[in-house]
Amino acid sequence: MAAPQKVCVVGSGNWGSAIAKIVGANAAQNPKFDSTVKMWVFEETVDGRKLTEIINTDHVNVKYLPGRKLPENVLAVPDLVEASRDADILIFVIPHQFIGRVCETIKGKIKSGVLGISLIKGVDEGPDGLKLISDVIQEKLGITMSVLMGANIANEVADEKFCETTIGCKNKNHGALLKELMQTNNFRVTVVEEHDVVEICGALKNIVAVGAGFCDGLGFGDNTKAASCGVADLITTCYGGRNRKVAEAFVKTGKSIEELEKEMLNGQKLQGPATAAEVHLILKHKNLIDKFPLFNAVYQICYQGHPVAEFISCLQNHPEHM
Ligand SMILES: NC(=O)c1ccc[n+]([C@@H]2O[C@H](COP(=O)([O-])OP(=O)(O)OC[C@H]3O[C@@H](n4cnc5c(N)ncnc54)[C@H](O)[C@@H]3O)[C@@H](O)[C@H]2O)c1
Ligand SMILES: O=P(O)(O)OC[C@H](O)CO
After folding, report:
1. Over the range 15-52, which residues count as b (16 or more CB within 10 Å of their CB) and which as e?
2. Which residue numbers delimit the Glycerol-3-phosphate dehydrogenase NAD-dependent C-terminal domain (predicted)?
3. Which residues contribute to the annotated binding site?
C-alpha cells in the first residue's frame, strides 16, 4: 500500500479553518492519509497569546472560526515552509491577494509531484489579462492544480449544515482522492473536469454578491437583486418567492400545502408542488426518477406523505455523490 498522503492546509481564516475541521476529521480515520494535518497560520496575537498556541492547545481558531472545535490532529504551524515542505497534498485557502507572496515563499521548497487544490475565490489580473488563481499557483510552483468551489458559507459548513460543493479536476484519480479527503455526510462533493469553469464561477459570484448588497442597502426587492446573473429566477425564488415561503411554513406549522396556500396567499396559486407532480410523471415515463432526487423528494413530501424531516437524507444520496 502507498505511504499515507501528508496534507497541509495553506491558510487558517474562516474557510481555511472550516476545511481543516473536515480534512482533519477525515484524515484521522482514513489510512490513505497521514493522521496529522498541518495548517499554516499567519501568526498573530490574540488576547496576549499566539494564535498557533491557542489552536494547538484549545483546538479552536478563536479569531476566524470561534466556537467550533478543530480536530486535535490539526496542527497549527506558523512557518509556511515548515508547514508545507513534506506535504503530498497542498490545500490553498487564503484571501487571493496573498497568493503571490505565499508561492514565492515555498517555491523550490516543496516535494515534487505535490497535488494542489485551490479553494480561493478570486482572479489575478496582469498584463495578459485575467488569470485564474490556480493557474498562478501552477505556474509559480510547477504543481498539478485542482479547485474546489461551492455555495459554502464557512460557518455553516463548520456547523455541519448540509451543502454541496464541486471539485474541478482534470485527472480522475486525483479527483477521487481529493473527494475522499474532503467529502462528509453534510459536505457533498461532485467532481467535474471543467476546473476553469468551476473556478471562474466561484470568483465572479463575489462581484454579484456585492451588487446584491447594494440592492439591499438601497431598499430594492428580490427581483432587482437577482437581475444581474443568469440564474436570476432561481436565486430570487429561493429567497423571496411564494413557493419558498409556503414550504417553510409547511415545515413549521405541520399544516398541509393546500391549507397554507389558502391561508397565506389570498387566492394566489402555488406553482411548485403542482409542477413537481407533473415532472414526476414525465420522469416516471422515462425511467429517470433516480437521476433527480431533489425533484423526487419534493414530490414525495408534497403528495405522498413522506416526512419532511427526511428531505436532507434524500439529497445525501444524490447519484452525483456516489
Ligand atoms: N469564508 C467563507 O465562507 C468562504 C467560503 C468559500 C470560499 N472562501 C474563499 O476562501 C478564501 C479564503 O477565505 P477565508 O475565509 O479562509 O479567509 P478570511 O477571509 O477569514 O481571511 C483571513 C485570513 O487571512 C490571513 N492573512 C491576513 N494577512 C495575511 C497575509 N499578509 N498573508 C497571508 N495571509 C494573511 C489571516 O491570517 C486569516 O487566516 C477566499 O478566497 C474566500 O473567497 C471563503
Ligand atoms: O462570505 P462570502 O461573500 O465571501 O462568500 C462565502 C462563500 O464564497 C459562499 O459560498
Report:
1. bbbbbbbbbbbbbbeeeebbebbbbbbeeeeeeeebbb
2. 227-312
3. 11-16, 42, 98, 121, 154, 242-243, 269, 271
The per-residue DSSP string of 65-80 comes to: STT-BPPTTEEEES-H
Grid look-up 437524507 returns 313
pLDDT tens string 100-140: 999 999 999 999 999 999 999 998 887 777 899 999 999 99
Q: Which residues are annotated as a binding site for NAD(+)?
A: 11-16, 42, 98, 154, 242, 269, 271
List, in order, residues 6 or more apart from 311 with CB less than 8 Å away.
Answer: 297, 301
For cell 513534506, what's the residue? Answer: 86
C-alpha cell, 216: 439591499
C-alpha 37: how far from chain center: 19
Locate all alpha helices (DSSP H) within 30-90, ordered by sequence.
Answer: 51-58, 80-84
Q: In the structure, which protein residues have their CB atom closer than 6 angstroms to any atom of ligand 2?
A: 121, 151-153, 206, 209
Largest CA distance in the chain: 68
The pairing of beta strand 144-149 with beta strand 129-132: unpaired
Distance CA 72, CA 91 (A): 19
pLDDT in tens, 135-184: 999 999 999 999 999 989 899 999 999 999 999 999 999 999 999 999 99
For the Cβ of 120 lying below 6 angstroms from any atom of ligand 1, the answer is yes
Instruction: Please name every residue paired with 305 in a beta bridge, in sequence order, or none if there are none.
Output: none
Catalytic residue among 50, 140, 205, 255: 205
* Distance of CA 186 from the midpoint of ligand 1 (Å): 22
Give whole-number Cα distances, 304 to 24, 76, 172, 185, in Å: 40, 50, 39, 26
- Ligand 2 site-directed mutation target among 118, 206, 208, most atoms within 8 Å of CB: 206
Q: What is the ipTM of this complex?
A: 0.99
DSSP string, 117-164: EE----EEEETTEEEEHHHHHHHHH--EEEEEE-S--HHHHHTT--EE
